[in-house]
Amino acid sequence: MTPRQPSPAVVLTGFLLLLAAVFGVAYAVGAAVGPVAPGLHREDGGGGSGGRSGGGMGGMHGMGASR
After folding, report:
1. Rounded distance between C-alpha atoms, residue 46 and residue 59, angstroms
2. Residue 41 and residue 34: Cα distance in Å, rounded?
3. pTM given for the model
4. Contact of 44 with 54, CB cutoff 8 Å
5. Residues 50 and 44 sit within 8 Å (Cβ to Cβ)
6. CB count, 10 Å around CB of 44?
7. Distances (CA, A) of 52 to 6, 23, 33, 60, 66
8. Three-state secondary structure string covering the chain
């Protein structure tokens, strides 16, 4: 007797369910832990449609190439 091979649709469905479960657990753990760097936040007051991409790195002047 040889074991039956599952169809590709069953394997794909199982993989997608496993992937969704892993992302769900990762999201839940991240939400429970909170921000990694509490002082890191947007400086433009939220929104998201501004020209600048936030990130809280505005106070790091002088870190680029010398003038």
Report:
1. 17
2. 13
3. 0.50
4. yes
5. yes
6. 13
7. 50, 29, 27, 15, 23
8. CCCCCCCHHHHHHHHHHHHHHHHHHHHHHHHHHCCCCCCCCCCCCCCCCCCCCCCCCCCCCCCCCCC
Tell me: the pLDDT tens digits for 16-62? 999 999 999 999 998 998 877 777 766 765 555 555 455 555 556 66
> With contact defined as beta carbons under 8 Å apart, do 56 and 41 qualify?
yes
Encoding tokens for residue 32? 């429970």
Tokens representing 8? 């590709």
What is the rounded CA–CA span in Å between residue 34 and residue 55?
A: 16
